[in-house]
Specification:
- By secondary structure, the protein is mainly α.
- The protein contains 14 helices and no strands.
- It has helices at about 1-25, 30-35, 40-55, 60-65, 70-85, 90-105, 110-140, 145-170, 175-195, 205-245, 255-270, 280-290, 295-325, 335-340.
- It has a domain at about 40-150 and about 220-340.
């Protein structure tokens, strides 16, 4: 309880400092509001359309990773699980735990849900880690690479390589999976013994079975999962790029590659579970990079706030509405079984 309160207090302090102290120093809110107020109706329509496309792209990765999950359930589910990351500190960890609990309440098997949570999480996080690498390559081609972005690219590529190596080792053989499962079960049981809880019911054979089914699913759908992850990330980037252009910042001030670089930094910052959805640090990182590249302060802050509003608020509202009507959206057993055979 004390730790939770401390995390909440720190997150609240970071958000307050960001929006009360830091952002007003980058651009006066009066000037920012004037920029937003002058948005043309055509641009507003384009931004709303991009927002809808972004919401839709949440569903395909989960449909691919969890056979039996249809689009009409996957779409509200992803909004609900993502909304959880916006209302509680913990970031992706909260989202993964929430995803597991929500899908289990619909009757999906624990191992299938765990596999889906693992695969979607790994694919998405690896994509985020590679974004700065792609940005550095593109900026280098334009002779604009910066120290901060290069550092993030090196760190991201290193973590990516380690993560891929660990994933490969875990999935390399059933024997290794059994040994890993036995080790994890032993460690978890010791921890549970300290808090006087019973031992876990899974072990080496569970890990081996989990590994076999995961490998089979990845072999069938890895390329679709990769495409879905790329499309989902690009849909978010397009909203930022459109917001930048909508507020009057043209390509002569900020090229799309520079905008992509700033966005890739923001995505990496969002991985740090300091505040819900990275609220605060993301805005600071994004605006700082784009202003450094030559964007006008008020316009950049306005675009960043519009971008964050369109990528957070709709999902938050849809997610909360979904949680209220959660039971009614559950897929039938027939739907789950028919999809699982595909």
């Amino acid at each position: 309880m004390t730790r939770t309160r401390l995390m909440t207090a720190v997150a609240l302090a970071v958000v307050v400092v960001t929006f009360v102290v830091v952002l007003p120093r980058i651009a006066d809110y009066g000037a920012v509001w004037e920029v937003v107020r002058q948005l043309e109706p055509a641009w507003i329509a384009v931004l709303l359309a991009a927002m809808l496309v972004n919401v839709v792209t949440y569903a395909p990765p989960w449909m691919l990773a969890l056979p039996g999950l249809r689009f009409r359930q996957a779409l509200p589910f992803t909004q609900a699980s993502t909304a959880l990351t916006y209302v509680a500190p913990g970031g992706g960890i909260v989202g993964m735990a929430g995803s597991f609990g929500l899908l289990r309440s619909w009757g999906f098997p624990s191992d299938a849900v765990a596999r889906a949570v693992t695969i979607t999480g790994v694919w998405n996080q690896l994509a985020n880690l590679l974004l700065p690498v792609a940005a550095v390559f593109m900026l280098t081609a334009e002779a604009e690479s910066g120290t901060v972005l290069t550092t993030l690219a090196i760190v991201g590529s290193s973590i990516f390589a380690v993560a891929v190596a660990l994933l490969t080792l875990a999935l390399w053989s059933a024997r290794l999976a059994r040994e890993l499962g036995e080790l994890v079960a032993r460690v978890v049981n010791r921890v549970l013994g300290v808090v006087r809880r019973g031992p876990v019911r899974w072990g080496d054979e569970s890990f081996a079975r989990f590994r076999n089914e995961t490998v089979a699913l990845i072999r069938r759908r890895w390329w679709l999962l990769t495409i879905a992850a790329i499309v989902g990330n690009l849909a978010v980037f397009v909203i930022l790029l459109l917001a930048i252009r909508a507020v009057g910042v043209g390509a002569s001030e900020l090229t799309w590659i520079e905008v992509f670089a700033g966005w890739s930094v923001a995505r990496v910052i969002q991985l740090v579970p300091l505040t819900p959805g990275g609220l605060g640090p993301v805005e600071i990182g994004l605006t700082s990079v784009l202003v450094a590249f030559g964007g006008r302060n008020a316009e950049v802050v306005a675009a960043a706030l519009v971008y964050r509003f369109l990528t957070i608020v709709p999902t938050l509202l849809l997610g909360l509405a979904t949680i209220v009507a959660w039971r009614r959206l559950a897929p039938s057993e027939t739907e789950q079984e028919s999809e699982a055979k595909r």
